[in-house]
UniProtKB/TrEMBL annotation:
Domain Fibronectin type-III: residue ranges: 1-75, 82-174, 175-264
Pfam families, A to Z: fn3
CDD domains, per the entry: FN3
Name under which the protein is recorded: Fibronectin type-III domain-containing protein
InterPro entries recorded: FN3_dom, FN3_sf, Ig-like_fold, Striated_Muscle_Regulatory
Source taxonomy: unclassified sequences, metagenomes, ecological metagenomes
Length: 269
């Protein structure tokens, strides 16, 4: 802006210089009579420019005004835009894969946070700019996990993405072991075994007589480690095997154990 000191100008010519040297001034615009301001646009950030103005009419130009300089501010820099469309997919009982949409072009990277309850989140990883996927491994089976992601740069963090949740599937139970079949009488054999898993829903017990195929004897509840097989035939060989099961499937069978029921003593003469 400037002060108009004449009443007979046709207009004003505005000149600009990158360094204030008279030799480097160039005209950048003209305005009409009585106009006392001009907007110079399209400039570089953080750059100093020098200006001067002269009036003119048909008789010629006036002398130049004083020179005045101004420096453009830096380009405003903000935190990156929020990521969105976060999706969590359970790949296995110990891995969840994440993917999201990158909505900014100035992030330094992304922070990934996880929660067991959607209340308390903890940062578990950072990934570089433009990365839109992450695999969270080493997780606990049959467990819910919640996730959120934010972008970051030198100016701070974006807002968070949506929360994505999923759960890891359970695993197959471990095989039972140490199966023992002990003869109790001519009609009873007792079974014991070791429970090696903590996620079974129960155990299946199968038996066979001599060379016949195995058939299901019974099922017992989780954490049960013994069973009494009664009403058996005397002096008969029985084979047994046990496996654990849950809603995912069944373990392998234990090793076989066998026993022979006692013979019935002869009747008294």
């Amino acid at each position: 802006a400037w002060t108009d000191n004449s009443d007979n100008e046709t207009g004003f010519a505005i000149e600009r210089s990158p360094d204030g040297d008279d030799a480097t001034y160039t005209g950048i615009g003209m305005v009409g009579v009585d106009v006392v301001s001009y907007s110079d646009t399209g400039l570089d950030p953080e750059t100093t420019y020098w200006y001067r103005v002269k009036a003119y009419n048909l008789e010629g130009p006036s002398e130049y005004s004083n020179t005045e300089s101004a420096t453009t501010p830096p380009v405003p820099v903000y935190p990156p835009d929020d990521p969105s469309n976060l999706v969590a997919t359970a790949i296995s009982s110990s891995q969840i894969d994440l993917s999201w949409m990158d909505n900014s072009d100035d992030e330094t990277g992304f922070k990934i946070e996880r929660s067991p309850n959607d209340i308390t989140y903890a940062e578990i990883a950072t990934v570089a700019a433009d990365v839109t996927a992450y695999s969270d491994t080493g997780l606990t089976p049959d467990t819910f996990y919640f996730y959120q992601v934010c972008a970051f740069n030198v100016n701070g963090d974006s807002g968070y993405s949506n929360v994505a949740e999923t759960f890891t599937p359970d695993t197959l139970p471990l095989d039972p072991s140490d199966l023992v079949a002990a003869t109790v009488s001519s009609s009873e054999i007792d079974l014991t075994w070791s429970d090696n898993s903590g996620n079974e829903e129960g155990f299946e017990i199968e038996y066979k007589i001599t060379e016949s195929p195995y058939v299901l004897l019974t099922t017992v509840n989780a954490n049960t480690v013994s069973y009494s097989h009664t009403d058996l035939d005397p002096d008969t060989w029985y084979g047994y095997r046990v496996r654990a099961y849950n809603d995912i499937g069944k373990s392998e069978w234990s090793d076989e154990a066998n026993a022979t029921t006692d013979d019935v003593p002869p009747a008294a003469p």
